[in-house]
Amino acid sequence: MTGTITVTVNGQDRHLPANSTLLALLDTLELDPRAVVVEHNRGIVRRPELDSATLADGDSVEIVHFVGGG
Amino acid sequence: MSERGGTGADGPLVIGGRAFTSRLMVGTGKYADHQTMVRAIEASGAEVVTVAVRRVDLDRTKHEGILYHLDPKQFFLLANTAGCYTADDAIRYARLAREAGFNEYVKLEVIGDQETLLPDVVGLVEAATTLVGEGFKVMAYTNEDLITALRLEDAGCAAVMPLASPIGSGLGMINPYTIRTIKRRLQAPVIVDAGVGTASDACITMEQGVDGILMNTALAAADDPVAMATAMRMAVDAGRLAYLAGRMPRREIAIPSSPTTGMLG
Protein backbone atom coordinates (compact mmCIF):
# COMPACT_ATOMS: atom_id res chain seq x y z
CA MET A 1 0.00 0.00 0.00
CA THR A 2 1.26 3.45 -0.81
CA GLY A 3 0.08 6.92 0.02
CA THR A 4 -0.74 8.40 3.38
CA ILE A 5 -2.78 7.41 6.39
CA THR A 6 -4.44 9.54 9.03
CA VAL A 7 -3.68 8.67 12.64
CA THR A 8 -4.96 10.43 15.74
CA VAL A 9 -1.98 11.24 17.93
CA ASN A 10 -2.75 12.75 21.34
CA GLY A 11 -6.09 13.87 20.00
CA GLN A 12 -4.72 15.50 16.84
CA ASP A 13 -4.99 14.10 13.33
CA ARG A 14 -1.60 13.46 11.73
CA HIS A 15 -0.92 12.41 8.18
CA LEU A 16 1.79 9.79 7.88
CA PRO A 17 3.21 7.59 5.14
CA ALA A 18 1.42 4.25 4.95
CA ASN A 19 3.03 1.47 6.96
CA SER A 20 4.77 3.90 9.32
CA THR A 21 5.94 2.31 12.55
CA LEU A 22 5.46 3.83 15.99
CA LEU A 23 9.20 4.36 16.20
CA ALA A 24 9.08 6.33 12.94
CA LEU A 25 6.23 8.42 14.36
CA LEU A 26 8.26 9.24 17.47
CA ASP A 27 11.19 10.13 15.24
CA THR A 28 9.00 12.46 13.18
CA LEU A 29 7.82 14.10 16.40
CA GLU A 30 11.42 14.32 17.65
CA LEU A 31 10.57 12.34 20.77
CA ASP A 32 13.05 10.09 22.56
CA PRO A 33 11.45 6.64 22.92
CA ARG A 34 13.12 6.26 26.32
CA ALA A 35 11.35 9.36 27.65
CA VAL A 36 7.78 8.46 26.71
CA VAL A 37 5.25 5.65 26.93
CA VAL A 38 3.10 4.83 23.92
CA GLU A 39 -0.43 3.48 23.74
CA HIS A 40 -1.66 2.17 20.37
CA ASN A 41 -5.42 1.65 20.04
CA ARG A 42 -5.62 1.53 23.87
CA GLY A 43 -2.90 -1.08 24.27
CA ILE A 44 0.52 -0.26 25.68
CA VAL A 45 3.39 -0.86 23.28
CA ARG A 46 6.65 -1.79 24.97
CA ARG A 47 9.76 0.03 23.81
CA PRO A 48 11.36 -2.95 22.03
CA GLU A 49 8.17 -3.37 20.01
CA LEU A 50 7.92 0.24 18.81
CA ASP A 51 9.96 -0.58 15.73
CA SER A 52 7.70 -3.43 14.65
CA ALA A 53 4.31 -1.87 15.48
CA THR A 54 2.82 -0.62 12.21
CA LEU A 55 0.18 2.08 12.03
CA ALA A 56 -3.00 1.84 9.98
CA ASP A 57 -5.43 4.47 8.80
CA GLY A 58 -7.76 5.54 11.62
CA ASP A 59 -5.51 4.28 14.42
CA SER A 60 -5.30 6.11 17.69
CA VAL A 61 -2.02 6.76 19.48
CA GLU A 62 -1.40 8.28 22.88
CA ILE A 63 2.10 9.38 23.83
CA VAL A 64 2.55 10.23 27.51
CA HIS A 65 5.28 11.20 29.92
CA PHE A 66 5.67 12.34 33.51
CA VAL A 67 4.84 15.92 34.42
CA GLY A 68 4.65 17.73 37.73
CA GLY A 69 1.89 16.50 39.99
CA GLY A 70 0.95 15.86 43.59
CA MET B 1 9.79 4.39 81.70
CA SER B 2 11.59 5.23 78.49
CA GLU B 3 14.31 2.93 77.27
CA ARG B 4 14.99 5.05 74.23
CA GLY B 5 17.71 7.10 75.84
CA GLY B 6 16.21 10.33 74.54
CA THR B 7 16.77 9.57 70.87
CA GLY B 8 13.21 8.46 70.13
CA ALA B 9 14.79 5.56 68.24
CA ASP B 10 12.72 5.03 65.13
CA GLY B 11 12.74 2.36 62.47
CA PRO B 12 12.65 3.11 58.78
CA LEU B 13 9.41 3.66 56.91
CA VAL B 14 8.79 0.43 54.99
CA ILE B 15 6.22 0.38 52.19
CA GLY B 16 5.71 -2.66 50.01
CA GLY B 17 8.92 -4.20 51.31
CA ARG B 18 11.10 -1.19 50.51
CA ALA B 19 12.61 1.03 53.21
CA PHE B 20 12.42 4.78 52.63
CA THR B 21 14.70 7.36 54.17
CA SER B 22 12.22 10.17 54.78
CA ARG B 23 8.70 10.24 56.18
CA LEU B 24 8.00 13.36 54.15
CA MET B 25 6.93 12.83 50.54
CA VAL B 26 6.40 15.72 48.18
CA GLY B 27 4.66 16.48 44.92
CA THR B 28 6.06 18.28 41.91
CA GLY B 29 3.02 20.23 40.73
CA LYS B 30 2.21 23.94 40.65
CA TYR B 31 5.69 25.37 41.25
CA ALA B 32 6.42 28.72 39.68
CA ASP B 33 9.50 27.27 37.99
CA HIS B 34 11.48 24.06 37.87
CA GLN B 35 14.52 25.43 39.65
CA THR B 36 12.45 26.41 42.69
CA MET B 37 10.82 22.99 42.64
CA VAL B 38 14.13 21.16 42.68
CA ARG B 39 15.54 23.35 45.45
CA ALA B 40 12.38 22.91 47.54
CA ILE B 41 12.39 19.14 47.11
CA GLU B 42 16.04 19.01 48.11
CA ALA B 43 15.34 21.17 51.16
CA SER B 44 12.45 18.91 52.17
CA GLY B 45 14.75 15.91 52.38
CA ALA B 46 12.08 13.84 50.63
CA GLU B 47 13.01 10.65 48.86
CA VAL B 48 9.57 9.90 47.42
CA VAL B 49 8.49 12.44 44.82
CA THR B 50 5.15 12.21 43.04
CA VAL B 51 4.61 12.82 39.34
CA ALA B 52 1.59 12.77 37.05
CA VAL B 53 1.06 11.04 33.71
CA ARG B 54 -0.03 13.34 30.90
CA ARG B 55 0.04 13.58 27.13
CA VAL B 56 3.26 14.84 25.64
CA ASP B 57 2.58 18.30 24.26
CA LEU B 58 3.29 17.79 20.57
CA ASP B 59 3.35 21.52 19.84
CA ARG B 60 5.97 22.10 22.57
CA THR B 61 3.99 25.10 23.80
CA LYS B 62 3.59 23.81 27.36
CA HIS B 63 6.01 22.21 29.81
CA GLU B 64 8.45 19.55 28.93
CA GLY B 65 8.67 16.34 30.92
CA ILE B 66 9.59 16.53 34.58
CA LEU B 67 12.52 14.18 34.06
CA TYR B 68 14.42 16.96 32.36
CA HIS B 69 14.59 18.56 35.81
CA LEU B 70 14.44 15.72 38.32
CA ASP B 71 17.11 13.05 38.43
CA PRO B 72 15.31 9.69 38.76
CA LYS B 73 18.44 8.27 40.36
CA GLN B 74 18.24 10.84 43.15
CA PHE B 75 14.53 10.43 43.95
CA PHE B 76 11.96 7.64 44.08
CA LEU B 77 9.36 8.57 41.48
CA LEU B 78 5.83 7.79 42.61
CA ALA B 79 3.39 8.16 39.72
CA ASN B 80 -0.14 9.19 40.54
CA THR B 81 -3.45 8.72 38.77
CA ALA B 82 -4.60 12.26 39.55
CA GLY B 83 -7.41 13.50 37.36
CA CYS B 84 -8.96 10.04 36.94
CA TYR B 85 -12.67 9.80 37.74
CA THR B 86 -13.24 6.09 37.08
CA ALA B 87 -11.50 2.89 38.12
CA ASP B 88 -10.85 2.07 34.45
CA ASP B 89 -9.14 5.41 33.84
CA ALA B 90 -7.01 5.07 36.95
CA ILE B 91 -5.97 1.55 35.94
CA ARG B 92 -5.07 2.80 32.46
CA TYR B 93 -2.91 5.61 33.87
CA ALA B 94 -1.23 3.27 36.36
CA ARG B 95 -0.27 0.84 33.60
CA LEU B 96 1.17 3.65 31.51
CA ALA B 97 3.14 4.90 34.50
CA ARG B 98 4.61 1.49 35.23
CA GLU B 99 5.66 1.16 31.60
CA ALA B 100 7.92 4.18 32.09
CA GLY B 101 10.12 1.64 33.82
CA PHE B 102 10.97 3.13 37.21
CA ASN B 103 9.03 1.03 39.71
CA GLU B 104 5.77 -0.79 40.33
CA TYR B 105 4.43 1.70 42.89
CA VAL B 106 1.43 3.88 42.12
CA LYS B 107 -0.35 6.56 44.11
CA LEU B 108 -3.88 5.60 43.23
CA GLU B 109 -6.47 8.35 43.00
CA VAL B 110 -10.02 7.82 41.82
CA ILE B 111 -11.72 11.15 42.22
CA GLY B 112 -15.47 11.30 42.77
CA ASP B 113 -16.26 14.99 42.67
CA GLN B 114 -14.71 17.96 40.90
CA GLU B 115 -15.41 20.56 43.55
CA THR B 116 -14.05 18.71 46.58
CA LEU B 117 -11.72 16.24 44.83
CA LEU B 118 -12.89 13.71 47.39
CA PRO B 119 -12.29 10.08 46.40
CA ASP B 120 -14.85 7.78 44.82
CA VAL B 121 -14.24 5.05 47.35
CA VAL B 122 -16.15 2.39 45.42
CA GLY B 123 -14.07 2.95 42.30
CA LEU B 124 -10.97 3.24 44.46
CA VAL B 125 -11.35 -0.20 46.04
CA GLU B 126 -12.19 -1.67 42.63
CA ALA B 127 -9.11 -0.16 40.98
CA ALA B 128 -6.89 -1.09 43.93
CA THR B 129 -8.02 -4.73 43.73
CA THR B 130 -7.25 -4.91 40.01
CA LEU B 131 -3.88 -3.21 40.29
CA VAL B 132 -2.73 -5.29 43.26
CA GLY B 133 -3.64 -8.35 41.17
CA GLU B 134 -1.38 -7.04 38.42
CA GLY B 135 1.55 -6.75 40.81
CA PHE B 136 1.36 -3.04 41.57
CA LYS B 137 2.33 -1.68 44.97
CA VAL B 138 -0.72 0.48 45.48
CA MET B 139 -0.69 3.53 47.74
CA ALA B 140 -4.31 4.60 47.83
CA TYR B 141 -5.44 8.19 48.36
CA THR B 142 -8.66 8.01 50.35
CA ASN B 143 -10.82 9.94 52.77
CA GLU B 144 -10.55 9.59 56.55
CA ASP B 145 -13.11 6.79 56.67
CA LEU B 146 -12.01 3.73 58.65
CA ILE B 147 -14.08 1.22 56.72
CA THR B 148 -12.71 2.32 53.36
CA ALA B 149 -9.20 2.18 54.80
CA LEU B 150 -9.83 -1.38 56.00
CA ARG B 151 -11.20 -2.37 52.58
CA LEU B 152 -8.12 -0.95 50.91
CA GLU B 153 -5.89 -2.88 53.27
CA ASP B 154 -7.89 -6.04 52.58
CA ALA B 155 -7.42 -5.41 48.86
CA GLY B 156 -3.67 -5.60 49.43
CA CYS B 157 -2.67 -1.94 49.25
CA ALA B 158 0.93 -1.27 50.23
CA ALA B 159 -0.12 1.94 51.99
CA VAL B 160 -3.35 3.74 52.78
CA MET B 161 -3.32 7.51 52.35
CA PRO B 162 -6.17 9.30 54.11
CA LEU B 163 -6.51 13.03 53.63
CA ALA B 164 -6.00 15.58 56.40
CA SER B 165 -8.40 17.87 54.50
CA PRO B 166 -9.24 18.32 50.79
CA ILE B 167 -6.46 18.44 48.18
CA GLY B 168 -4.94 21.88 47.87
CA SER B 169 -7.09 23.32 50.68
CA GLY B 170 -4.35 23.91 53.26
CA LEU B 171 -6.93 23.47 56.01
CA GLY B 172 -4.72 21.14 58.02
CA MET B 173 -5.86 18.12 60.00
CA ILE B 174 -9.63 18.40 60.40
CA ASN B 175 -10.26 15.12 62.17
CA PRO B 176 -7.32 13.74 64.14
CA TYR B 177 -9.59 11.23 65.88
CA THR B 178 -10.43 9.34 62.69
CA ILE B 179 -6.82 9.46 61.51
CA ARG B 180 -5.68 7.96 64.82
CA THR B 181 -8.38 5.31 64.55
CA ILE B 182 -7.24 4.37 61.04
CA LYS B 183 -3.63 4.19 62.18
CA ARG B 184 -4.55 2.07 65.19
CA ARG B 185 -6.64 -0.39 63.17
CA LEU B 186 -4.44 -0.90 60.11
CA GLN B 187 -1.30 -2.95 59.74
CA ALA B 188 -0.44 -1.22 56.44
CA PRO B 189 1.48 2.05 56.62
CA VAL B 190 -0.74 5.12 56.88
CA ILE B 191 0.51 8.17 54.98
CA VAL B 192 -1.57 11.31 55.31
CA ASP B 193 -2.00 12.78 51.84
CA ALA B 194 -3.41 16.23 51.17
CA GLY B 195 -4.58 19.19 53.21
CA VAL B 196 -1.46 20.16 55.13
CA GLY B 197 -1.00 23.93 54.88
CA THR B 198 1.89 24.88 57.11
CA ALA B 199 4.49 23.40 59.44
CA SER B 200 2.22 23.16 62.48
CA ASP B 201 -0.24 21.10 60.41
CA ALA B 202 2.53 18.68 59.50
CA CYS B 203 3.68 18.43 63.11
CA ILE B 204 0.16 17.79 64.41
CA THR B 205 -0.36 15.19 61.69
CA MET B 206 2.79 13.29 62.62
CA GLU B 207 1.89 13.53 66.31
CA GLN B 208 -1.13 11.33 65.57
CA GLY B 209 1.30 8.47 64.97
CA VAL B 210 0.90 8.14 61.21
CA ASP B 211 3.83 6.83 59.22
CA GLY B 212 4.35 9.80 56.92
CA ILE B 213 2.91 12.75 55.02
CA LEU B 214 2.63 13.58 51.35
CA MET B 215 2.23 17.24 50.45
CA ASN B 216 2.50 19.43 47.40
CA THR B 217 0.60 22.72 47.46
CA ALA B 218 1.84 23.65 50.94
CA LEU B 219 5.31 23.95 49.44
CA ALA B 220 4.53 25.06 45.90
CA ALA B 221 2.10 27.80 46.96
CA ALA B 222 4.22 29.19 49.82
CA ASP B 223 5.78 32.59 49.24
CA ASP B 224 9.15 30.92 49.71
CA PRO B 225 8.81 27.24 48.83
CA VAL B 226 12.40 26.40 49.76
CA ALA B 227 12.04 27.87 53.26
CA MET B 228 8.67 26.14 53.72
CA ALA B 229 10.20 22.85 52.62
CA THR B 230 12.86 23.23 55.31
CA ALA B 231 10.17 24.04 57.88
CA MET B 232 8.17 20.99 56.82
CA ARG B 233 11.17 18.71 57.12
CA MET B 234 11.72 19.91 60.68
CA ALA B 235 8.01 19.74 61.50
CA VAL B 236 7.71 16.15 60.30
CA ASP B 237 10.79 15.18 62.32
CA ALA B 238 9.49 17.06 65.38
CA GLY B 239 6.01 15.57 65.15
CA ARG B 240 7.38 12.08 64.73
CA LEU B 241 9.75 12.50 67.66
CA ALA B 242 6.98 13.91 69.86
CA TYR B 243 4.78 10.95 68.98
CA LEU B 244 7.54 8.50 69.85
CA ALA B 245 8.30 10.43 73.04
CA GLY B 246 4.69 10.03 74.17
CA ARG B 247 2.94 13.20 75.15
CA MET B 248 1.74 13.99 78.69
CA PRO B 249 -1.94 13.41 79.39
CA ARG B 250 -4.31 16.31 78.84
CA ARG B 251 -5.93 17.64 82.02
CA GLU B 252 -8.59 20.27 82.38
CA ILE B 253 -7.26 21.51 85.71
CA ALA B 254 -3.92 23.03 86.55
CA ILE B 255 -1.23 21.08 88.36
CA PRO B 256 1.61 23.17 89.74
CA SER B 257 5.04 22.57 88.30
CA SER B 258 6.77 24.02 91.38
CA PRO B 259 6.66 22.57 94.91
CA THR B 260 3.63 23.57 96.96
CA THR B 261 5.59 23.06 100.17
CA GLY B 262 8.40 25.21 101.52
CA MET B 263 6.58 28.45 100.91
CA LEU B 264 7.57 31.44 103.09
CA GLY B 265 5.62 31.81 106.34
Count of strand segments of chain A: 5
Chain pair sharing the greatest interface:
A-B, 22 and 35 residues
What is the radius of gyration of chain B computed over CA atoms, rounded to a whole number of angstroms? 20 Å
Which percent range describes the beta-strand content of chain A? 35-45%
Physical arrangement of strands within the biggest beta sheet of chain A: 2-1-5-3-4
- Oligomer state equals heterodimer
The proportion of residues in beta strands of chain B is 15-25%
Reported for the largest beta sheet of chain A, the result is: 5 strands, mixed
Helix and strand run of chain B: EEEHEEHEHEHEHEHEHH
Computed over alpha carbons, the radius of gyration of chain A is: 12 Å
Task: Describe the protein's architecture and organization.
The complex is a heterodimer of chains A (70) and B (265). By secondary structure, chain A is mainly β. Chain A has one helix and five strands, in the order E-E-H-E-E-E. Chain B is of the alpha/beta class. Chain B has eight helices and ten strands. Chain B has helices at 34-44, 87-99, 121-133, 146-154, 176-185, 199-207, 217-220, 225-245; strands at residues 13-15, 18-20, 24-26, 48-55, 76-80, 105-108, 137-142, 159-162, 191-193, 212-215. In chain B, helix 6 (199-207) links the parallel strand 9 (191-193) and strand 10. In chain B, helix 1 (34-44) runs parallel beside helix 8. Chain A binds chain B through residues 9-12, 29, 31, 35-37, 39, 42, 44, 46, 62-70, and chain B through 27-31, 37, 50-56, 58, 63, 65-67, 77, 79-80, 82, 92, 95-97, 99-100, 167-168, 194, 214-217. Strand 5 (60-68) of chain A pairs antiparallel with strand 4 (48-55) of chain B.
Features:
heterodimer; A: 5-stranded mixed beta sheet; 1 helix; globular; B: 265 residues; alpha/beta; 5-stranded parallel beta sheet; 10 strands
Concise overview:
The complex is a heterodimer of chains A (70) and B (265). Chain A is mainly beta. Chain A has 1 helix and 5 strands.
